[in-house]
Amino acid sequence: MQQYEWDYDRHQRTNIGEAVYCESKSVEQIQLILNQHIQNQANVLLTRLSAEQFQLLDADIQQKLDYCAISKTAILQSKSAHLADVSPFFANFKVGIITAGTSDIAVASEVARTLSFNQIHSEMICDVGVAGIHRLLNKIDNIRQFPVLIACAGMEGALFSVLTGLTHAPVIAVPTSVGYGVSKGGKTALESALASCAPGITTVNIDNGFGAACAAIKLAHMCKQWSQ
Amino acid sequence: MQQYEWDYDRHQRTNIGEAVYCESKSVEQIQLILNQHIQNQANVLLTRLSAEQFQLLDADIQQKLDYCAISKTAILQSKSAHLADVSPFFANFKVGIITAGTSDIAVASEVARTLSFNQIHSEMICDVGVAGIHRLLNKIDNIRQFPVLIACAGMEGALFSVLTGLTHAPVIAVPTSVGYGVSKGGKTALESALASCAPGITTVNIDNGFGAACAAIKLAHMCKQWSQ
Amino acid sequence: MQQYEWDYDRHQRTNIGEAVYCESKSVEQIQLILNQHIQNQANVLLTRLSAEQFQLLDADIQQKLDYCAISKTAILQSKSAHLADVSPFFANFKVGIITAGTSDIAVASEVARTLSFNQIHSEMICDVGVAGIHRLLNKIDNIRQFPVLIACAGMEGALFSVLTGLTHAPVIAVPTSVGYGVSKGGKTALESALASCAPGITTVNIDNGFGAACAAIKLAHMCKQWSQ
Amino acid sequence: MQQYEWDYDRHQRTNIGEAVYCESKSVEQIQLILNQHIQNQANVLLTRLSAEQFQLLDADIQQKLDYCAISKTAILQSKSAHLADVSPFFANFKVGIITAGTSDIAVASEVARTLSFNQIHSEMICDVGVAGIHRLLNKIDNIRQFPVLIACAGMEGALFSVLTGLTHAPVIAVPTSVGYGVSKGGKTALESALASCAPGITTVNIDNGFGAACAAIKLAHMCKQWSQ
Amino acid sequence: MQQYEWDYDRHQRTNIGEAVYCESKSVEQIQLILNQHIQNQANVLLTRLSAEQFQLLDADIQQKLDYCAISKTAILQSKSAHLADVSPFFANFKVGIITAGTSDIAVASEVARTLSFNQIHSEMICDVGVAGIHRLLNKIDNIRQFPVLIACAGMEGALFSVLTGLTHAPVIAVPTSVGYGVSKGGKTALESALASCAPGITTVNIDNGFGAACAAIKLAHMCKQWSQ
Amino acid sequence: MQQYEWDYDRHQRTNIGEAVYCESKSVEQIQLILNQHIQNQANVLLTRLSAEQFQLLDADIQQKLDYCAISKTAILQSKSAHLADVSPFFANFKVGIITAGTSDIAVASEVARTLSFNQIHSEMICDVGVAGIHRLLNKIDNIRQFPVLIACAGMEGALFSVLTGLTHAPVIAVPTSVGYGVSKGGKTALESALASCAPGITTVNIDNGFGAACAAIKLAHMCKQWSQ
Amino acid sequence: MQQYEWDYDRHQRTNIGEAVYCESKSVEQIQLILNQHIQNQANVLLTRLSAEQFQLLDADIQQKLDYCAISKTAILQSKSAHLADVSPFFANFKVGIITAGTSDIAVASEVARTLSFNQIHSEMICDVGVAGIHRLLNKIDNIRQFPVLIACAGMEGALFSVLTGLTHAPVIAVPTSVGYGVSKGGKTALESALASCAPGITTVNIDNGFGAACAAIKLAHMCKQWSQ
Amino acid sequence: MQQYEWDYDRHQRTNIGEAVYCESKSVEQIQLILNQHIQNQANVLLTRLSAEQFQLLDADIQQKLDYCAISKTAILQSKSAHLADVSPFFANFKVGIITAGTSDIAVASEVARTLSFNQIHSEMICDVGVAGIHRLLNKIDNIRQFPVLIACAGMEGALFSVLTGLTHAPVIAVPTSVGYGVSKGGKTALESALASCAPGITTVNIDNGFGAACAAIKLAHMCKQWSQ
User: By the CB < 8 Å criterion, does C27 face chain B?
Assistant: First the structure.
């Protein structure tokens, strides 16, 4: 089996730690990649690693991983971690993760885990979907404290517009594949984010909690750099 | 040229007065249809009659029509109007027409004209799109007075969900073809209405102000019948 | 695990009782939500609760639920039911549920169960699809008695147009995901409802029996209010 | 400019006379093709020839053509017509062309002209769309006399199913591009024909009156052959 | 459980025997329908009846059915068969069923079984896809003998055009869901049939062997009627 | 004509100055809105204002506007500008606008004008599409100086991925409607941004230069707030 | 106005001469680009340059261009042509361009012009669409002489499969936007090429004659290199 | 069961050895086909043969097959192999197979196996996706040695454009179904290849490693023929 050519200096080049998307990889391929990272004492975040895939990994590799079934992520924290020296700047910088409903929590957890792997704090605020607008309005003062917001919503994704219209912070939308009929697969929520009447929303792919977290990480680092 | 076989007793069967959709008809066809109605002293509502089409009609027919360029509707009110004997019930029954933005007013006007042709009152409340949620909240007490609401919105159509979550009345969504990119043609607004997290919205085709009005007319008549 | 922030006063605000969509929720999440309702002595309707999900709930919770496998709905009727004091108005108000074929009965049952949970009566009339138009015509006098009609049809959804052309009552279309090839997933039936030549149809999302019932509930309450 | 390589013996091979689709051809190309046919004393049917294209042809060629603006067809009937010796069988064989609305007449006329060019009789029955089902039922006895039916309908195309459920004859659907919103371009009507619950419908492309006529011509010839 | 309202006189009205589409029906529903037919001594064709569904039927019902796993069809031939008195006309009338590849045989078998249930003969000619055009040309003389052709092809469906260009007989296309990538689900083959450059093809829904057979049955009966 | 209900305090709530999307508005509506702003001495940015629309405005209103035909934007700078007191923080903060080709400059100009109206500096770097990767690599050191990047690309949008993989800064993609065939309308470029293998890209709607600029403005203000 | 950053050494890097796609560029932009090439004595091919755009260029620039209205291409052949030293290898190497119909000739001409600009010979063979398969079979011996084939077809694109099944040479498909209804815009022809049952076809974007020619140029150069 | 009509002389006609696509075939059908080839001592390549299907074949047939689970291909090498006499020309001709990521290796292996069955050498270069452009640039000198390149990439497929812009050789894109959300199923990667700004890419269907290999085989044979 071939060597995996990973992107060693990605963190240095882009501020994002190495991550591997597992959905379309075989267990053999994932194991090969993990072994290379272990040998190189490198950290890596695995995303879309199903419980079935995780169970099929070698037992000693399983033990080295911090696995989370809800978010389907695993973290390999090898000895010489590249993120050891975290700046004090990030102590107070906390990303707000907002979900429309309970069904969006899996994706929101992928956001939180990716941020955490990259040493950024976050806080999750759930069930503030706009069908009962008071739920959002009741929490808006808290929500306005965050420097950046990541909103997770499926179905018609109306939360994106309302939230963006109420806040100063950049809002990154994560459309989720929660829905059926015309909204099956998350396309309606995605288009809602893209077509929003509220200026300043940006979006990532459906269910791409990882990508939204990466964008927030880039924002955080930019912020830190300009704060100096 | 052939006779037009119209649906004479539609009003009796369905509570909706005769209407003719003009977008895909030639001026000759429209004229033929109007002449038949004039001869039969029947009323008719013309929808999607462009200013160009209207200008090409015979001058004497133009004079008989009440034409509205914004809604692209014309009303032929012949002598023996089938709607003469209006029930007192409808004096107080007023449909609320809510628009997200200025761009939705053309469609909202088609709603209002169709209602008026069928002897139902309405009132239009504009520019309450959710990007500035306070605009909607400021008027919500007024909006809650209407027995039925017709909401017109394009782009991401978030208004439908927020409005429905705040009101008792049935909400009929009219997605409008206001938007570009992914929302060009109105599909995103339509899917937003269909996939809404707020239970109880029903919707009609994109830009179908006429259809929404007809649904409201049926509701009004049902209401009248049960009030007796 | 986080608290579920439910929408306590939804019934008061919108005339619709609390309901939870279970398709994209984990068994743990559903259980958490049910426990909160039990503790608060609140009623709740669960929709899209598969037999597999139901079987995995705790035995004592299962016993508290009235589960229906055909419609995939469960009803939790806690002690202090918010719907106890039903108006006498609703004694005679019965929603007509019309299905094109036997395959549409599952969705029609979701309609009936949602209505029943919200204290509205209904009656189901099945197998009147238009391929044999006499089946519909034979029952049209009965169908014309209902104040509101909910029509469930898949494939090409021609029933929506024919039915609407024959009746005074508002017709709410529920396109079903019955079909294959181009109509797989229910999109053709949905577009048929939206593009109908018969004025006054409104529609809900594919297989959204719950939503159609909610719209009918709103109509019923409006009707009751205006009958006073 | 290159020679046009036409399909000389198509009629002999397929029972369909030579025809040229003009929509995507330049006026120069159309003229070249017509000149070749004139030189070879061959007949040809031009379809989708817009009034603008027709006006730009050489005056002497225009005179040789029998042009119909409604159907956008032109017929070149050269001297040694290949269709001169028509069988007596076809004297009584008449194709029924049924339209849902006035807007479908242009397509229906393409059907009629193509049949006529190929020496098959037809009769058009208009405005029997199912929103007022009595219009169709009133004429059903007449419609049942035709050996083959070509139905032209746009919007939701419900006519196809109802008509097919009421008749013995083969029904060929021609979905038309009459509609807006979701049915814009005719796709809903097409899918309605394909997904119909009434067994035995076949369909052609949107607005393809020419193709439907060709299918009917093939049926007619098969019928004649088996009648001997 | 409710009665199934079947379409008793469909055969008389449309020349097609009663058939039931089983894909979206529960085993209970199928059994109910079969029992009603048995009690009424009526024949019925079941389509899309999977081996799993068949195995779950009551053993005595299974014994009464003639089941074919390839085509997923079952025939219930009760005592007083409505098709007993077959016309001698059909003795020589044989439908040609042409398949592009081995993968299309399942659909072709649904065609053959439907024809057989309705007392029409057929013959299958397989593996004449156009990637090796000689395979088709070698058999074209045989193919030209059939009064009507039903062509089954997936992928790009080029067979439809080539076959139609080579034959007098009406060609009914059955696009099959054989393919992957862009042609997954059969849409490319369907559009190929609709957009064909060869005039006179008509088509049915993807994998709809039943529908194509029904169209051929209608043709056969028309032919018989005109042969008298 | 009705009053326009504008969103007076949007700037205060969201850091974005008032803007009006003109594509779907009539000249009368635009004029009404401008007059209200003039009377209130408020600033406003008009987007998608075509040259034709601009020419039809009253001459005195035209004179008050700073119109740019390339970006189709107009700026009304009334007396009491809400953006007068600009922070010194923004003196050094410059957004990098990167275009793949010459065809993307119109959209890039909408970005620049929106930034400028909101008092944010920018610089445009053009023609660095990846078909000639050296063009991008040659300028990468300059590009790496910007705190935030807005990338405009049509066709296959490969620039988004390559650029993001080479830089620390947040990248906001603006897919443009440059392309034909499958990429007509900009959908391929949009999906490229969403599906990118390079983590951290966020995107806005097709051609939505305004939206991307608004997101950058929100970033800039967040950055300023955290720099204090 | 900004400088145009062109890709000077593209020919050296990729064997393809500099070309500029004009459809989405303004006349000012095109003129700027041409002036830069003239100043640098560089050759360039302009594609999708409409007659309207060409007419609006400065007269002296028009004179320097070799413009072809059918293919909408213009060639600027400056003094120090980079293609002057053509290899003798290419004297006998001729690309075969095959079209299904007359309507495909515009695209085929773009192929021929692009090849010619890059010093590769070609020959066009027209009107061999498969509806009359004999037209193709009659010319197959000639067609088999070409080392590479570029096939241009719209509608259902069946030519691609049949042609590829009959020849040794690589076949590059160019789907054209000739068609209506489901094949409008060329998508059906494109999918036909992609889903073909004949192995070995590759395809380019709809109407992309330029791209197909470039692929053939790359093939020709590879061939030349290996012939040495 | 019917005979399988295979395409005996395909290799002679098209330079491609016989191959059978197994995804939509039953085990019985595959076995029948293999037995015919064994009896005729003919070679055949099976593609898309799942491990499940392979396990269900008769044990003696399994033994005769060279099966590869990664690429899902099996090779039957019967005695009188038609590819025995390989030209010395092919000794040095090696196809370069380039993959963006580890997930694309399955498809790349189908390419390699198809080439090998047809006696063409290849070499695989993996993990050079453009998110870390240096990975591609580091290997570009090696990549430039191949006479033809087959690039396998999913998600946004940006590799196709960058690679083509850097090389002389023809590039055949194989979009893979690696991705989720908007890129689920491979459509975004496919459109990226089609819409690429880098001239000269051609593409095959999603996951069609077999087809890309066949195109390369045709190129190789053309090359050989012209080298003589």
Answer: no
